[in-house]
Design a protein that fits this description.
By secondary structure, the protein is of the alpha/beta class. It is built from 12 helices and 12 strands.
Length: 337
């Protein structure tokens, strides 16, 4: 097979984006796709010293990161005219358009929002899939469920299950069930995110987390109808209030039932930003189907049994990328890193 050279690419980013954020985006992109892209320059949208035409003509690929609609239209028109590869981060409105269908009411093209996630046949099929799969897996995994319960009880004598109130469709609150993987009263001093080598995690809990076994009791939630197999992860009540206040679009995630796995779990990471998680979840909501659910379930199994290496950066790798030929420019200064 003929070896393909990386595409010479430029990143143009929004005027509100800080240098640290765009560097992080470039680092993550190069970390995984250095064989596809050779990013040699990055320009801020607020930079008035560069010409869109000159920059686009000098590259085979243009990546737009959170740029304004006006800038995006200008870049896309010129890039398309010269057959350049174009990538851009979508807005919430862009993603919502995926749930629209064409309507020819007049000679003026019109789009109608279709509420795909409320289609009766899709909902019935999804619920049937949830019941069949949760019952089947509960039967198959019953020996593992029993052994896990015994191991948790034997280790410290505490409760087997961890229960917590979560929000699902239309803000409905339910109690999610997991195997307890932390010490009793781990959150008595308030919520704290679980860290690597967290001292609160028990020995049995560590094994359960690594094998994802702590999530198995949620099959009961799925069978009861509290959750679905596929959907946005149901959030803690206090997190919903906090995220919705900071990001109103977060409420859109609750158009459907929360899920055991979902788009954000497959294509996102633990440290994916709340806004990016919303965009991933909305992409699922606007395109959901039984076929897509089955695809996500299979991809979830792949991740469980063939986990990808972490996307965190070692100090050495960060220095290597930081010392590359990428140039960042804005209207105040020319930073060559």
């Amino acid at each position: 097979m003929e070896h393909m050279e990386p595409q010479k690419a430029v990143i143009i980013y929004g005027k509100h984006i800080e240098q640290e954020e765009i560097l992080d985006f470039a680092h993550r992109l190069l970390h995984k796709y250095a064989h596809l892209f050779e990013i040699d320059e990055m320009y801020s949208e607020k930079d008035v010293s560069f010409s869109v035409e000159d920059v686009v003509l000098d590259h085979s690929t243009v990546l737009m990161y959170e740029v304004s609609g006006r800038t995006r239209r200008k870049i896309m028109r010129f890039s398309m005219a010269h057959k350049k590869n174009i990538y851009f981060t979508p807005t919430i409105e862009d993603i919502t358009l995926q749930g629209c269908s064409e309507k020819h009411l007049l000679d003026t093209p019109m789009m109608k929002y279709s509420y795909v996630y409320e289609t009766p046949s899709e909902y019935t099929g999804k619920r049937l899939l949830d019941i069949v799969m949760s019952l089947s897996l509960l039967c198959i995994a019953s020996p593992l469920l029993l052994l896990s319960a015994i191991a948790i009880k034997v280790e410290d004598g505490g409760p087997v299950f961890f229960k917590q109130k979560r929000c699902t469709k239309n803000g409905k609150v339910f109690e999610i069930v997991k195997f307890r993987s932390m010490i009793v009263d781990a959150e008595k001093n308030g919520f704290a995110p679980c860290m690597e080598r967290d001292s609160r995690i028990t020995k049995v809990g560590s094994i359960l987390r690594k094998t994802r076994m702590d999530e198995l009791p949620q099959l009961i939630n799925i069978l009861k109808g509290d959750m679905s197999f596929v959907g946005p992860r149901p959030e803690r009540i206090e997190h919903v209030a906090k995220y919705t206040k900071e990001l109103p679009e977060f409420a859109y995630r609750m158009r459907v039932k929360g899920g055991l796995t979902g788009y954000a779990q497959i294509y996102g990471k633990y440290n994916t930003s709340p806004y990016d998680k919303v965009r991933l979840d909305l992409t699922y909501i606007e395109n959901q189907s039984l076929f897509l659910d089955l695809k996500i379930i299979l991809l979830t199994l792949k991740i469980i049994f063939i986990p990808e290496s972490t996307e965190g950066f070692t100090e050495k790798r960060s220095k290597e990328i930081g010392g590359s030929k990428v140039k960042i420019r804005d209207s105040q200064e020319n930073l060559a890193k």
